[in-house]
Every structure is written in C-alpha cells, then in structure tokens.
Amino acid sequence: MQLTGQQLRTVRYYLDHRDRPPTWAGFLRRFARVLVLWVVVGVAGCYLCVVAGLPTVAWLLAGMLVGAALREARQHHHVSRAWPAIAAIVDWDRAQALAGAGSEKHAEPGAAADGGGV
C-alpha cells in the first residue's frame, strides 16, 4: 500500500502519540510557526486596511484568522478527546510498517525500488 503525503503524516502523528496522548503544549509546539505567521499577517493586514480607510475589511480579516485558529484548536480538541478510542483500535505494528514503507518511498523520489538504474 502506497500512502499519500497526508496519510503518511497522519500515521506518523499516531505513532508519535502511541504512548502519550496529544496535549495542548504539543499542539502549540507543532503549530507555533503557523500561528506566528497568522498573527503577523493579521496585524499587518488589519493595519493596512485601517490606514486605507477600510475598517470593515480589517474586522473581516481578523474574524477569518480567529475563525481559522479556532477551527484548528477544535480539531485538536476532538482528536485529544477521541485519543483513547483511536489508540485502542490502531494496529501499531501495521502503522509502524506503513510509516517505514512510506518513509522509504518519500525519501528518494524517482529512485528505483531495487536500487538499480533505469
């Protein structure tokens, strides 16, 4: 089975949390750069909108960024709450095998499976 990039990231996420459930500190660590980017873009965008005389657009931009942040927080909250059930039904040996196979395929795109040339 060949995993897509998103599927491989999901399997790795599950494996990273095999022994300990997801936490808010882990969530903030993983998304710190994205959250900082959103704050910078939001503040700069709102400032430019207010300077341009468009305060309504500034509120719209701020609302969209806050909504996106709340969506991410809600998704993390749902995964955290469902984690005991997820951990109980995942076949960890199979997940490890899939992550290992996916790592090899994504490590060298274009490389032949047998390591030989064309």
Key phrases:
118 residues, mainly alpha, single chain, 0% strand, disordered C terminus
Task: List the SSEs and their pairings.
Elements: H1 5-16, H2 24-30, H3 32-51, H4 55-89, H5 92-107
Structural class: mainly alpha
Low-confidence stretches: 108-118
Helicity, as a percent range: over 70%
SSE order, one letter for each helix or strand: HHHHH
Strand content: under 5%
Shape assignment = elongated
Quick recap of the structure?
The chain has helices at residues 5-16, 24-30, 32-51, 55-89, 92-107.
Describe the structure in your own words:
With 118 residues, this protein is mostly helical. It has one domain. Helices cover 76% and strands 0% of the residues. It contains 5 helices and no strands. Helix 1 packs across helix 5 (92-107) and helix 3 (32-51) packs antiparallel against helix 4. It is elongated and about 60 Å long. The two termini are 23 Å apart. The relative contact order is 0.15.
